[in-house]
Specification:
The structure holds 2 protein chains of 2 kinds.
Chain A (H helix, E strand, L loop, with lengths): L45 H12 L22 H7 L2 H4 L11 H18 L3 E3 L5 H18 L7 E5 L5 H8 L3 E5 L9 H7 L4 E6 L12 H10 L3 E6 L18 E4 L1 H4 L14 E3 L11 E5 L2 E5 L18 H39 L3 E2 L10 E4 L1 H7 L3 H10 L6 E2 L8 E4 L7 H20 L1 H5 L12 H6 L11
Parallel strand pairs in A: 2-3, 2-4, 4-5, 5-6
Antiparallel strand pairs in A: 1-7, 6-7, 8-9, 10-11, 11-13, 12-13
Chain B lengths: L7 H11 L29 H14 L4 E2 L12 H7 L2 H4 L11 H18 L3 E2 L6 H15 L7 E5 L4 H11 L5 E5 L23 E6 L9 H10 L3 E6 L20 E5 L15 E5 L12 E5 L5 E5 L6 H4 L12 H38 L4 E3 L8 E6 L3 H10 L2 E2 L2 E2 L10 E5 L6 H16 L8
Parallel strand pairs in B: 1-13, 3-4, 3-5, 5-6, 6-7
Antiparallel strand pairs in B: 2-8, 7-8, 9-10, 11-12, 12-15, 14-15
Chain lengths: 486, 460
């Protein structure tokens, strides 16, 4: 099943006329400002467009239709109420620069969201403005730089990241004009403290850590890591990608972190939307409070208002045209209110229960855990190194074959230091039966790998397309449709 | 338990399988002294009925005003089908299309989007979206520095007619990599950037010139002359454009003799509600020669094992998950769902509809300016052709006038006095295709009444 391009439905003169504004005597602009010809947009009826995009949607896997255990991405159920109530007309119609007297309802939600995020992270201040995790990281590292600069400590431009870190961590450090120092992990998945001691020094700006790490284990010596970095004059950055694992159980502020970003589209279940929008709200401890990105919602008596340049003169500044992804923040607010105080810890508890159960079932079935002596956090790694060696099938082959079994693939080939890895994160919203079904699929694929490896190599077989030629995509760039190519 | 499906029997069976007595035993690796206590600051849970009622009340409290504010976010008609499709679970709850075979819907939509944006901007390639218009300018500046190999200065000229928030955001994001953003003054008669203001840079190393069309004042810039000056003096051109305006205005790829090099901007006018500032989507397009310097995701068309057409993420060697510290940007999650809204919007509205939307904007703003400037105490600041915004000067401070209008249910515009004190009490107003003559009359009547009162706070 495939669907032709929207342009291939187009006929000159067709259109969804009911969507066009009433015609007027146009007030003409001088010709020098006008475009030479019409843009290449489809001319289709409303039904043709609706049918086309509905059919396209049906080519996707999604949480609403499949188990989606994509490690480090927290693909949990996105409650429909969050969408419905964030899209009330009063919220949608409000202009970002409308008078604050016309925004008290919205601002109340944002203020309370800031307060709730402070409480679950143990931080002193929160800014909601970063528009994705990577922008939250940027804000965090920019604040660390601003902190050192304010103290006249201009040499501190090195950011330390563990080898298991997300690619965004080193990329962020570069965007902030810092250099990256990598520290290795020990064989059982913790940060190598001796290597860390050897790395810190007068140039250390800070360390970026995910805890639990992307290896799916909790960094047990986190207090020692903090001590080493703080004593060297650096600050601690918490990458909140895996906050789901510890929500309500441990707070990054209590672990000694100076700054944290949260992926609200992970932990607080706002939709991933096929690649966004996200939200990367940041929280800080005392040291970094003056540097938070603006705007922030303040409360004076019973009135809410934006705090901006005048209120926070040392801020690292603005990161978006207005205030970030407001509609995403409303969804996170609604989700947190529905979970309530007790629901926070339940997220971590059941996410961890599901991960450990799934890990246990898979190892029982003969799969190799990458860190066998360790408890799983909310996710864990299976390595297919043995299968690759003995059966010549790869993690990618397993991943593609899983699609035929109706499961989205786990994260493959990340973290980079574990060979042939599948990073599996079931999340708390999956039922035991769905986890059991995933184990059955993995067992069945293992059998196929032993008896009919070609089935894996050629997978997927049942999706709209078979495996795609990525090399050709890279070499013969075809990035936009052209009429003559039709 | 909200959203958790486990029965007591499930929990028992799962713990037994793992071999522990309690769920809490699974957290044994976390040092005991770090365990969090109860979260006293989080209120007790609400069920869906209760949260629904709370949100209804809060949304209603904010009311619904007649809005004449633009300044970077614009009220347009959004076809009902746009959000009906975008909120389908298959699009709404999918992730970034890393598993291409299981994400052909998302990938094909991105390819269609890239095609539309490339054509709209008159350039060859578009990425799959950035966060918003402001951060897109920051990324465009960083990209220009990478793309312009002969330029060593990382100096970017930013006319003061560029959205001042965009300029701030560009500094906040790109300043850490030692980019230098230099202001250019504007012509006080026309509210536009003039080539004469660029003369003092001749002979110097300039990496790029930013040109916003229409500019922040709504005025049309002489994009051809500015583009040609930049190219003649070795600088790249970054176009900041409004996608609705491109229904009629010259595409950046057509500016001057060679066209702009990078186009970027705010995609919100294409089917995305105002919603207090986001989520919106930033867009970016460029020439093929610079594609490897472009940040963000890009989709390519290719074939599968059987030779069937399919779509996949491509040129990933630019991105953070491959290149890590040497990536073109740290961007990972972008604004996929909003990009889809834009694609569906453009498909429904079509080339004719987009041109009509743009023309209606011009016409309605013309009518708005005529109605408001006939009021005593209101004058029009600039005399150049404009798109859908205009600067008005008042005979008294703008803030209290806007408050008085807001009290009557009218959002009267954006107060320019903080960003442009030299203009005195100046107000930026906007009328898109959504504004009727009756709306405009209502605004003019209210403003007339407010300005009839003696100045409580007369200007010196």
């Amino acid at each position: 099943m495939t669907e032709k391009l929207i342009f291939e439905y187009s006929q000159p003169g067709r259109g969804a006329a009911v969507q066009h504004p009433a015609t007027h005597d146009a007030h003409a602009l001088p010709a020098k400002f006008l475009r030479r010809g019409p843009p290449l947009l489809p001319e289709v009826s409303e039904l043709q467009a609706v049918r086309h995009f509905t059919r396209l949607s049906q080519l996707n896997f999604s949480i609403d239709t499949q188990f989606y255990p994509l490690g480090s991405c927290t693909m949990k159920y996105n409650p429909r109420a969050c969408n419905q109530y964030a899209m009330l007309p009063g919220f949608l119609a409000r202009h970002p620069l409308a008078s604050q007297s016309h925004g008290q309802g919205f601002l109340a939600c944002m203020y309370e969201l800031q307060e709730m995020l402070k409480e679950v992270t143990g931080m002193r201040g929160v800014s909601l403005t970063p528009m994705a995790g990577a922008q939250g990281e940027f804000a965090g590292v920019a604040m660390i730089r601003a902190y050192h600069r304010t103290r006249g400590d201009h040499e501190r431009t090195e950011i330390i990241v563990p080898d298991a870190a997300h690619g965004t961590n080193p990329a962020t450090a570069s965007m902030c004009g810092c250099t990256v120092k990598e520290v290795p992990s020990t064989p059982d998945g913790d940060v190598d403290l001796d290597a860390l001691r050897a790395t810190v020094g007068p140039r250390t700006a800070g360390i970026m850590l995910t805890n639990p790490s992307t290896l799916g284990v909790f960094e047990r010596r986190i207090m020692e890591v903090g001590r080493i970095v703080h004593e060297a004059g650096g600050l601690l950055y918490y990458d909140g990608a895996n906050l789901n694992a510890i929500l309500g159980k441990v707070r990054p502020g209590d672990m000694g972190f100076d700054v944290i970003h949260m992926n609200l589209h992970k932990t607080f279940s706002t939709p991933h939307g096929g690649g966004g929008p996200g939200s990367g709200a940041v929280g800080v401890g005392d040291r970094l409070l003056p540097f938070l990105p603006i705007p922030i919602v303040g409360k004076e008596g019973e009135r809410y208002r934006w705090l901006a340049e005048r209120d926070l003169p040392q801020s690292i500044g603005r990161l978006s045209g207005f205030m970030g992804n407001a509609g995403v923040l409303l969804r996170a607010y609604i989700y947190m209110r529905m979970l309530g105080r007790d629901g926070m810890a339940r997220v971590a508890e059941y996410a961890t229960l599901n991960a450990n159960y799934l890990l246990h079932r898979l190892t029982q079935a003969g799969f190799d855990a990458a860190y066998p002596g360790r408890r799983a956090s909310h996710e864990f790694i299976v390595t297919l190194k043995r299968q690759a060696r003995t059966l010549n099938v790869t993690a990618m082959d397993f991943a593609k074959r899983l699609l035929d079994y109706g499961c989205h693939a786990p994260t493959t080939y990340f973290p980079l230091l574990v060979p042939e890895c599948l990073l599996i994160e079931p999340t708390e919203t999956e039922a035991k039966e769905d986890l059991d079904r995933f184990v059955e699929a993995m067992v069945s694929i293992q059998r196929e790998a032993e008896t009919a490896p070609a089935t894996l190599k050629g997978a997927p077989h049942t999706l709209p397309v078979r495996r795609l030629d990525d090399l050709r995509a890279n070499k013969h760039l075809d990035l936009a449709w052209k009429p003559q190519a039709a | 338990m909200p959203f958790i499906p486990h029965t007591e029997a499930d929990v028992r069976a799962m713990l037994d399988a793992i071999g522990v007595g309690h769920i809490d035993d699974l957290f044994e690796e976390i040092p005991a002294q770090l365990r969090a206590g109860p979260l006293a600051g989080i209120p007790a849970a609400l069920n869906e009925m209760e949260i629904g009622r709370l949100m209804e009340e809060r949304a209603a409290r904010d009311g619904r005003s007649l809005c004449f504010i633009g300044a970077g976010a614009y009220e347009h008609h959004i076809p009902s089908a746009v959000w009906a499709i975008v909120t389908r679970g298959e699009l709404y709850s999918a992730y970034t299309p890393y598993q291409a075979e299981a994400s052909q819907g998302t990938l094909q939509m991105i390819y269609e989007y890239q095609t539309m944006m490339a054509s709209l901007t008159g350039l060859e390639v578009s990425n799959a979206s950035l966060y918003d218009g402001a951060s897109a300018l920051a990324e465009a500046a960083l990209m220009a520095v990478r793309a312009h190999r002969r330029s060593r200065s990382a100096r970017i000229l930013v006319p003061r007619t560029v959205n001042p928030t965009y300029a701030k955001v560009a500094r906040a994001i790109a300043g850490n990599q030692n980019l230098v953003f230099e202001d250019l003054p504007y012509c006080t008669d026309g509210g536009h950037t003039i080539v004469e203001s660029l003369r003092r840079f001749e002979g110097e190393d300039i990496t790029a010139l930013v040109i916003q069309q229409p500019n922040f004042f709504g005025t049309l810039e002489d994009v051809d002359e500015l583009t040609d000056w930049a190219h003649a003096h070795g600088a790249l051109v970054i176009a900041v454009v409004n996608p609705s305006a491109l229904g009629i205005l010259k595409a950046p790829g057509e500016w001057g003799a060679r066209g702009a090099d990078i186009a970027c901007g705010e995609g919100q006018p294409l089917g995305v509600p105002l919603s207090s500032g986001g989520p919106y989507f930033g867009f970016m397009a460029t020439r093929m020669e610079f594609v490897r310097q472009m940040p963000g995701r890009i989709v390519g068309r290719t074939v599968d094992l059987e030779g069937r057409t399919g779509f996949t993420l491509t040129l990933q060697a630019r991105e953070q998950h491959i290149r890590r510290g040497k990536a073109t940007s740290n961007i990972c999650t972008n604004q996929g769902l909003l990009m889809m809204a834009g694609t569906i919007y453009l498909s429904l509205i079509g080339p004719k509809g987009l041109a009509e939307v743009a023309s209606a904007c011009v016409t309605h703003t013309h009518a708005l300016v005529a109605a408001l400037s006939s009021i005593a105490g209101v004058s029009v600041a600039f005399d150049r052709p404009r798109f859908h915004e205009a600067v008005l000067q008042l005979d008294r401070p703008v803030g209290p006038v806007l408050d008085a209008l807001a009290a009557r249910g009218i959002e009267g515009g954006f107060d320019l006095s903080e960003h442009y004190p030299e203009l005195g009490p100046a107000l930026l107003v906007c009328a898109t295709e959504t504004k009727t003559q009756a709306d405009i009359d209502a605004y003019a009547w209210a403003l007339g009444e407010i300005l009839q009162a003696p100045h409580p706070d007369p200007l010196p």
